[in-house]
TrEMBL record:
Listed Pfam families: DAO (PF01266), FAO_M (PF16350), GCV_T (PF01571), GCV_T_C (PF08669)
Coiled-coil regions listed in the entry: none
Ranges for domain FAD dependent oxidoreductase central: 372-425
InterPro entries per the UniProt record, alphabetical: FAD-dep_OxRdtase, FAD/NAD-bd_sf, FAO_M, GcvT/YgfZ/DmdA, GcvT/YgfZ_C, GcvT_C, GCVT_N, TrmE/GcvT-like
UniProt name for this protein: 4-methylaminobutanoate oxidase (Formaldehyde-forming)
Organism, scientific name: Knoellia remsis
Domain Aminomethyltransferase C-terminal per the UniProt entry, residue ranges: 724-810
Amino acid sequence: MALPDRARVVIVGGGVIGTSLAYHLAHESVQDIVLVERDRLTSGTTWHAAGLMTCFGTTSETLTGIRLYSRELFRRLEAETGLSTGFRPVGLVEAVGDDDRLEEYRRVAAYQRRLGLDVEEIGVREMAELFPLASMDGLVAGFHVPGDGRVNPVDLTMSLARGARMLGVRIIEGISVGDVVTRRDGALPRVTGVRTTAGDVECEVVVNCTGMWARQLGERHGVVIPNQAAEHYYLITDRLDGIDPDGPVFEDPGRYGYYREEGGGLLVGLFEPEAAAWRPEGIPDNFSFGTLPPDWERVGPALETAMSRVPVTFDVGVRTFFCGPESFTPDRLPAVGEAPELRGYFVAAGLNSVGVLSSGGLGRVLAHWIATGRPDVDISAIDVARFQPHQLRPDYRRDRVTEVLGTTYAAHTPGAELRSGRGMFVSPVLDEMVAAGAWLRDVSGWESADWYAGDGEVAELMPSWGRQPWFAHWEAEHRAVREAVGLTDMSFMGGLAVTGPDAGAVLSRLSAGSVDGEEGRITYTQWLGPDGGIEADLTVTKRSNEDFLVVVSDTARGHALAWLRRGLGDADVRVEDVTQRLGQLNVQGPRSRDLLALLADADLSDEAFPFRAARTITVAGVEVLCVRITYVGELGYELHVPGERAAEVWRALRARGTAYGLRPVGLRALGSLRLEKAYRDWGHDIDNTDTVGSAGLGFAVDLGHEFIGRDAVVAEQVSPRSDRLVQVLLTDPEPLMFGAEVMLRDGVAVGDVRSASYGWTLGGAVGLASVDTGLPGEPVTQEWLDAGTWEVDVAGVRVPATVSLRPLHDPTSSRVRG
């Protein structure tokens, strides 16, 4: 087939992801789609995938939906295309060998059942009946998903490709894309075509579906896709007498293995705890259907552990021993969406060894996004904009993939953290935090204090689902903010300086709140999509008519920066990321004004420095931007300090703060304090599928000006949604919540907890949850909440709860304005 001169969409890469996207774009009625594959369809990774189609194991609504859709698509696709996908719903058995993993999986099962996955906890005897080849030694329970199973990756890809061709998609093999052609379009360049070995093709959209080559293609235009290939192993035994070809997939993450029938033998797959990167310097362009030489010395012990779960594998020959590359991202989540650096450049890569089982749903999600301009699922955790340039470094990718592949089968116990690639950015008060006994955790590449053991002490933490000795430190920090004063380093927060003659007009058009009013004022606001979906949740400080500071959370910084740049057009505005130039020190609590007044050259009285005031003052001899605002529900101030002088201010506050009960406060207390006050966090409690109405943020909207999404906000006031974000508090003080617990009203699941912590002031686990009346046009009201009996499913145990639209701590905000 000849390459056309022009197309609307060019998909680069003919694996299972690229063909699924082509199929779904065609079903979205997108015309003029071309898929180009440098070799043959399935080359790279798809051809050697193990073919699992399993939905169990995630507390992400988006990822669960993607997997459930994929499973259903694989079931029905043959009827449409005439080509089998090889899907066989033989079931999944997930084995559990320890209490921590049992706790995790009970929580996962409860969450995914609410989303429609048929999963049940079973005993050891039932597991033995379902998969008799396995030894049950050391196992305590299992989880059975009867609808899961297996699929043939090559057959699936060919079926998707035929379905796409039937709807007019042109699929051309043997053509490589060497470059993407762009032109300047306002603040950002825009895709205008691709340059291939067979000529140029004009296009509006290009989609990078090149798998383990995605990083290399993206880097040519500054697009950050830090996926890295690693060795991945499986073996297939000779024929085994009595093996059931329709037996379930069996997974035992505690022994690093997954198992299923293959050609009359047994496939034993491996996710070893310490992996090996492959070619961090770059994947060869001509690598297609290749394999890698196995490292027996490294993988031998882990492979032996995996085989020991099915002892018969030691007594039968090995037909195939396979080592091939799979690519992983730094957080083991996909890289999806429009690149923040280049308009019209989309990405679907970094599938972390779950590309086949995600392919159907991921293709549908991205196709809808491209066709309509908006995703219809929460993309906050998978958005390619979350990645940062330092993650492209070869040493970072090598070290991170070595560790992150091993977490595929690790227990995800609270407190467990990755240790590689740490400390990419250094807080200006890092030494002071360490001296105060900080337990450091990674926050988007920054080392930040989670809690403090005390001056001169060494913090220790053991991952656990239960209470730990360090909870006493956490409680003390929480109470210091409620009763005295706390000092928190927030230097990791994203800071965007927006300056120029049109800065106010641009920010006003983007912001649902009124941000371009009087100087010296901070505004809490949201940026909305045309459909009213929340794209950012942040503050805008107007320092002068042409000088604004936007502050956004670390995890949302990339997405917000991209949204801002796309909204600039031809305006006379400059945007500078000043995150690493400024330190942010927060002084919060009822005695914060008294302490700060000792060190400041300004009148901080309520009359002179009211709530939301923002002024440049001197604190401890250092000029700072002081903003009276809070994220913990108390009187407090943010100090934006030049990075090189932040340590001076920290030391001065600590020295004078002793008399006022000041304590250094970590992020653990920040979380418990903000959730008691029901303050939202984008990417955790709210996302692009929420609106200001459903999120309970209508108070932050000013309809007196024009802004993106205004019509949608007005329409929702007339026809409100049936879902709403609410605060939930367990009435029993003992159970803990961590997020993703199921909400029950009168025994019926109506939502789930999005973020949770322990409310030391309120006396129980507290969180924010999304609940739904289930009746279109019938909004959640306090009357509806009060009319029901509320419980929360905590790992299979129903715990009574109180649910409220208003914050349970200081609902009138009198303490904030005190």
